[in-house]
Design brief:
Mean pLDDT: 80
Order of helices and strands: HEEEEHEEEHHHHHEEEHH
Number of helices: 9
Shape: elongated
Largest sheet: 5 strands, mixed
Number of strands: 10
Length: 428
Amino acid sequence: MLTRYLRAAAALAVLLCQPQQAVRAAAPPIPGMPSDSTPRLAPGDRVLLTVHSHPELSGEVVINWAGDLPLPLGEAIRAVGLTPGALERAVTERLGDGYLVQPRVSIQPAELRPVYVLGEVRTPGPVPYREGLTVLAAIATVGGPLTAAADSVALRGELLEAEERLQFLMGQRTALRARMARLVAQRNGDAEPRFPADLDETVATRRVVEGERALFRSEAEATARQLALLNERVAAAEQQSAAYAELIRVERQQLTTVTGYAAELNRLARSGIIERRRLIEMQLEEARLTSNLARLATELARSQEPRREAPLRAAEITAGVRQRALAELQQSQERLAEIESSLATAAELVTVRQHRLGRGAQARLTDRTRLRVTRAGPDGAQLYDVQEDTVLLPSDVLRVGDLPGDAAAAAVLIPAQASSNGRERGRP
């Protein structure tokens, strides 16, 4: 058991020292094949259009069979052959031309055309496209080849799955560590979170850190706005209290005057100099002023309540932020402990599957089975000899082994793409 744990810990330490972008080296270029592996959009692709601050203009949009992207405002825009980034810039320019002021547009692929795997494989058919999909991963997805290299490919597919699992756990670990740094800063009331130094080593980890830092600042601004609103209410209440206090001062002066006048009228009424009716009128005025003073005193006390409650309310706002941060921090700590435990197992699994492959089992599939890809281009479909680590693109047709009628089949297998290219060349 101790030997197993030490072997897993050593493998984990080696893998954690590697950049988190990828475990394997990039594939070498294929002679004659375009080096650009960025997916190009085509009819049938589904993209997520986001126009910031305009949810009514956002949503999933399908590129129609004419190769255009319908827009909520204005005419459709040409999308076929563009990368998502280029289409994003084109949509931004179109919406900014008389529709929106400085629009912020984001376009992300939601569902691109699949990759097709044919030939000497267990279950030929389409494979959902994902960024970075390689020949080996596509073959593993359809169950592996029906050749003598099947066992080797199956093992390599298992190794690929184990490596992807390890990378996923490492990404989760990075995200949790950055999140915990933010939560600790919120719990302690710090001005800025202090992230672990090793999270600044790669582009991916820096992106995670910047996301957590932006979230921290956004929540801090929201809390500051709540406190500022509370202070504004206190300031307004203080102005109202001052106004009531001034009214009370004036009413008291009037009451003092009326009380003295009523006393003088009472003396004159007893002497018979004036009618008692005038005394009664003055006494009624004295009662009215006394009632007004009581009402104003009640309003003054009510206007002072926000000032008395402000410190307690401000403490509740701050305590609420810290309590939520503490609860999320505890959950994150538990989740991180689970991931740390799973990382050791995942690293050991990678080591075991690498060992199972062995030096002899690691003979490349292309040494025994011919691999070719039919890829649509500006001049129609082209057939390329590829390697198992070649990165595939949407609508590629991967051909494992020898198939009859390769040239004819290449033009038939992807009619939508080929016809789209033909329409593109024939556009005025």
